[in-house]
Amino acid sequence: MAKKIKCRLCETELDKTAVALTRKLLGLKATRFYCLPCLANYLDVTVDELLAKVEEFKEQGCALF
After folding, report:
1. I want to staple 12 with a disulfide (CB 3.0 to 4.6 A). Which of 22, 35, 40, 49 is the partner?
2. What are the sequence ranges of the domains in the chain?
3. For residues 14-40, b (16+ Cβ closer than 10 Å) or e, as one string?
4. Over the stretch 28-59, which tens digit does the pLDDT of each residue have?
């Protein structure tokens, strides 16, 4: 079974999108991950803006997504 990754701030269990987005925006070697609301707060953006970026990265063919 794969290890469950949790948000470093609120301890919410993360899905693969949150993990991938954290790596994409904070660096591939990131060891601390954030859920989308906490990442949005950390980056001072909205969750909707993050989700739009996810779609943009997918359209670009980013392998993380």
Report:
1. 35
2. 1-65
3. beeebbbbbebbbeeeeeebbbbbbbb
4. 999 999 999 999 999 999 999 999 999 999 99
Using CB atoms within 10 A of its CB, is residue 41 exposed (0-12), middle (13-18) or buried (19+)?
Answer: middle
Residue 53 CB neighbours (<10 A): 15
Cα dihedral: 46, 48, 50, 55 (round 10): -170
Concatenated DSSP letters of 2-51: PPPPB-TTT-PBP-HHHHHHHHHHH-TT--S---HHHHHHHHTS-HHHHH
